[in-house]
Amino acid sequence: MGFLPPEFKDVVETDRDGHVAFRLALILTLYFHRGHSADKRRAVLECFNHYFALVGAGLRWWVIEEGHFSPVAKLAGKDMSPYLLSNRFEEFDRAWAFKWHGAEGREEASDLQIFGLGQSKSDSDFRGDLSFLTMAVPLDWAAAHSDQFLNLAIRCASLLRPFHGYGGIGVVLGEDGLADVAVEDRLMSVAAQHPGVEIDLPMNHVIFTKSAIKGGNWITVLSDPFVEQLGGADALRQALGEPFQLAQYPGGVVLVAGETPEFGDRNRRVGTPNYKKLARVLKPIRASEHGGISESFEGRFDAEEFQNWLGRFDDD
């Protein structure tokens, strides 16, 4: 099975210092409630362990919370349980966060990474803040192991029971994010040409997706409340038809838009028909408002531009 669409062209962008600022990967991002709770932290640990068993040999750097990246090679063990299963997060109303990645430089963008944030109890309970877990694997690995990646998505959805989520060919950023306007301009150019590419900044998206989803992609994860808003699982199957697949898990469904992701290329008039159809079905539950994602003073990706990007399949 050919995994990458024929119009696909890999993208690796460097900044003015020659460091990898962003690149493409196959990503999966899941948003969930009550990230501080022991059951969610155990679920995150299981997802981490499953991810590590698949691709962990390539991880080079790790960090927790607001620390500094350290070499994975210096770790005596690769066990996240002492951190994630600590009772301090509930006892002291603290958030948790970690990131592991496989780039050569500790601050560079990596197509091999797992990154999570669990909101504190007060932020979860009183503000309804969402937590997230996002994973990325190299596209060449995905081409040979797409079934394993889909199994990872379904397994983590079953464990975490997320509110919503998505996965597909997406952009992963270095630690400077979009602080460099030149990098942001190049990212906007990629997004404009290839509508199938997911722009993913979950630290930003959690603010705007508390009651609606960001959108769909090759993989779309919907909890039961969203499925019910769309008429139920059977209605979703009927509305989407072939070649979509729908897998149910306790708490929601995982939609898969065909055997391979769609990349799209507006310059060559290559469309994204599955994603357009999916967008029409999901539009009633998609976020209608989203702030800008720029991190640079002269940023281009303001709120209007990003909201237009969210609706890119509506009139593509």
Q: Your description of this structure?
A:
With 316 residues, this protein is an alpha+beta fold. It has one domain (22-308). Helix content is 34%, strand content 22%. The chain has helices at residues 38-55, 81-84, 88-91, 121-127, 139-160, 181-193, 202-208, 224-229, 233-240, 273-282, 303-310; strands at 12-14, 20-32, 61-64, 70-71, 96-101, 113-118, 131-137, 164-173, 198-199, 219-223, 244-249, 252-257. Strands 1, 2, 3, 4, 5, 6, 7, 8, 9, 10, 11 and 12 form a twelve-stranded mixed beta sheet that branches. Helix 6 links the parallel strand 8 (164-173) and strand 9 (198-199). Helix 1 (38-55) runs antiparallel to helix 5 (139-160).
Provide a concise account of the structure shown.
This protein is an alpha+beta fold and 316 residues long.
